[in-house]
Structure to design on (495 residues):
């Protein structure tokens, strides 16, 4: 019989390590950018979010947040190496533009771990 | 419906392991999960009734889905506002959906819907394969309500032109989930579809292309996930799943959030009050019910359930309930020698009612430690 308990413990250990290393980082920078990755101003992302929450299903301007990364900090400046997922802009989850670990945490830590029922 | 005691096959562990069921024994001294020391026997007429009830319930649930959308019942079901547009869109566009399991109470007379596990049902391999081989070994002249395997393969064949290969199968590393997704992969492969296993934790998001990617950084265009939507939406990539749903086809689709929610039971009762297949169910409390069950709207595996019977309370514990509760009349679940069976009736999308698996418990609450007991009919 497969000993999954060991696997689970390994995962939990890895998650714990990522969590503790993340705790020492300062608050993460966030910029609202356009489809080219240039800073566009928070009001644009807020407007898109408002539309989405109101149930609008049409095409919306592509403004979104990037977390972390570096930029000049002004509207129109490009954000380099930002991540659309909060908490993943640095550290082990982000390589070459691909971040991982954004799914599965509830299953790993939740009741018994199973995603089935 | 009768329960019979039986002598397990001498080599039953090896036999069920051979067909993939490695999770056959509970931890410690809790006994067996796969339990062939008993079996249930039905008549062909009873199976016909159960099959017809399953088909009827599916029809009613589809009507309930449209009702929820038309009446904007999102807040009753605690479906997040940001998910509503995609729930509606997928409902209307009908992307691939695969399966679901109705949990039924049956006392030999009444059939009552307990709940619909429509997003991430398990106990599948046991129902589709393991009990079939048990039947062949011990009762080859009897029959079993079970065409689950054949219908899954038929469904994948239908989907072959609508999915992108390889189809990823997302799972959490538990024995149960690994062998359930492994089995579903096998049925897809038998239908000629290339697949790959992928831990949910390993799913990547490419910030340059705004696509979900696999471990080779290739776009995930179709994924079956044994992972509930309410968990997906709460996690870090949840918003990306909504934003880029046109790039990744998710099986089950997000509209299944309407069905896998216990609130569906209250919606059904509102639409079909007094229907013979339903139990009274309400969002706002037990109302006039004396004996009833309180279930979390988004509960799983029997956790956080309260049973109120004859003024006494029986309760299970767990992490669920923050979204609220559903109050359902206590079902007429029969008790055989101290065992309460719940019938899991499988529905394969577009293929219809497909078969049955039975879980048995020593309490009236079925949970993740309830035993799987095989069945036959004559």
């Amino acid at each position: 019989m497969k000993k999954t308990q060991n696997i689970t413990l390994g995962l939990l250990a890895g998650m714990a390590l990522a969590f503790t290393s993340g705790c020492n980082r300062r608050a993460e920078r966030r910029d609202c950018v356009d489809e080219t990755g240039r800073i566009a101003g928070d009001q644009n992302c807020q407007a898109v979010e408002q539309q989405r929450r109101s149930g609008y299903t049409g095409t919306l301007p592509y403004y979104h947040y990037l977390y972390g990364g570096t930029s000049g900090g002004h509207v129109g400046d490009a954000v380099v190496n930002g991540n659309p997922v909060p908490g993943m802009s640095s550290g082990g989850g982000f390589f070459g533009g691909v971040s991982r670990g954004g799914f599965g945490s509830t299953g790993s830590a939740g009741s018994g771990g199973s995603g089935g029922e | 419906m009768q329960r019979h005691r039986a002598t397990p096959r001498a080599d039953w562990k090896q036999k069920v392991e051979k067909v993939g069921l490695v999770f056959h024994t509970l931890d410690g001294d809790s006994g067996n999960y796969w339990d062939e020391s008993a079996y249930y026997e039905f008549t062909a007429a009873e199976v016909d009734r159960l099959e017809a009830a399953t088909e009827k319930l599916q029809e009613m649930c589809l009507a309930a889905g449209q009702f929820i959308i038309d009446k904007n019942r999102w807040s009753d079901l605690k479906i997040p506002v940001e998910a509503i547009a995609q729930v509606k869109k997928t409902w209307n566009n009908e992307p691939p959906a695969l399966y679901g399991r109705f949990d039924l109470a049956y006392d030999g007379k009444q059939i009552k819907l307990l709940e619909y596990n429509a997003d991430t049902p398990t106990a599948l391999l046991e129902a589709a394969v393991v009990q079939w081989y048990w039947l062949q070994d011990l009762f080859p002249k009897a029959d079993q309500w079970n065409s689950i395997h054949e219908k899954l393969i038929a469904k994948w064949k239908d989907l072959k032109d609508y999915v992108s290969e390889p189809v990823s199968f997302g799972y959490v590393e538990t024995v149960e989930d690994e062998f359930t997704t492994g089995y579903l992969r096998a049925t897809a492969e038998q239908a000629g579809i290339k697949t790959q296993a992928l831990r949910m934790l390993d799913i990547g998001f490419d910030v340059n292309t705004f696509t979900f990617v696999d471990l080779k950084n290739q776009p995930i265009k179709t994924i079956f996930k044994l992972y509930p939507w309410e968990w997906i939406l709460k996690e870090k990539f949840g918003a990306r799943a909504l934003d880029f749903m046109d790039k990744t086809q998710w099986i089950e689709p997000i509209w299944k959030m309407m069905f896998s929610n216990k609130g569906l039971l209250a919606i059904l009762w509102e639409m079909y009050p007094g229907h013979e297949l339903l139990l009274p169910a309400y969002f706002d409390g037990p109302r006039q019910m004396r004996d009833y069950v309180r279930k979390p709207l988004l509960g799983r595996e029997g956790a956080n359930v309260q049973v109120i019977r004859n003024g006494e309370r029986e309760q299970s514990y767990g992490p669920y309930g923050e979204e609220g509760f559903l109050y359902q009349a206590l079902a007429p679940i029969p008790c055989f020698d101290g065992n309460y069976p719940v019938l899991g009736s499988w529905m394969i999308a577009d293929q219809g009612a497909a078969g049955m698996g039975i879980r048995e418990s020593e309490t009236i609450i079925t949970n993740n430690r309830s035993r799987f007991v095989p069945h036959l009919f004559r």
Summary: The mean pLDDT of chain B is 95. Residues 92 and 255 of chain B are 9 Å apart (CA to CA). The radius of gyration of chain B is 20 Å. Chain B touches chain A through 56 residues (CB under 8 Å).
